[in-house]
Design goal:
- This protein starts with a helix and ends with a strand.
- Helix 2 packs antiparallel against helix 3 and helix 2 packs across helix 4.
- It contains five helices and seven strands, in the order H-E-H-H-E-E-E-E-H-H-E-E.
- It has a three-stranded antiparallel β-sheet with strand order 1-7-6, with no helix packed on it. It has a two-stranded antiparallel sheet with strand order 2-5.
- The chain has one domain.
- With about 130 residues, the chain is of the alpha+beta class.
- InterPro entries: RT_dom.
- Pfam families: RVT_1 (PF00078).
């Protein structure tokens, strides 16, 4: 699905509510640092809940844990370029930045949210945005 599809679904829902004279509200959520904040243990449990277990679960555990990150800053002064790199830090949360799996893992992480919200409202989700 795309953001266009999500927007079209929202508009259809709003039009339907207006036609039915229903009270309608919308709340837009954009999770700050969404991919950086995922708890590895919770994500692994949710992966198991959607049927990812055995060797695949071991691969995901290896993929998520023990990662280290450093920040590199490049400064240019006239013709001199200098790179400074921070010490590496172990990442205890989140998924790798810019990874193809990041949005997919985030969606799996929040996959039970629409079911929870269904008792109260209709929800639309696209990656780290929720309406």
């Amino acid at each position: 699905r795309s953001t266009t599809t999500a927007a079209m679904n929202l508009i259809e829902t709003l039009i339907q509510s207006i036609e039915n004279s229903d009270t309608t509200s919308a709340i837009f959520l954009d999770y700050s640092k969404a991919f950086d904040s995922l708890c590895h243990n919770t994500l692994l449990i949710k992966l198991n809940n959607v049927g990812i277990n055995g060797q695949a679960a071991s691969w995901f555990n290896s993929y998520l844990t023990g990662r280290k990150q450093a920040v590199e800053i490049t400064t240019v002064n006239n013709t001199l370029t200098q790179k400074t790199t921070s010490n590496k830090m172990i990442l205890n949360r989140g998924v790798p930045q810019g990874s193809i799996l990041g949005p997919v893992l985030f969606i799996i992480y929040l996959s039970d949210l629409p079911q929870f919200l269904a008792n109260y409202c209709e929800s639309l989700m696209y990656a780290d945005d929720t309406v």
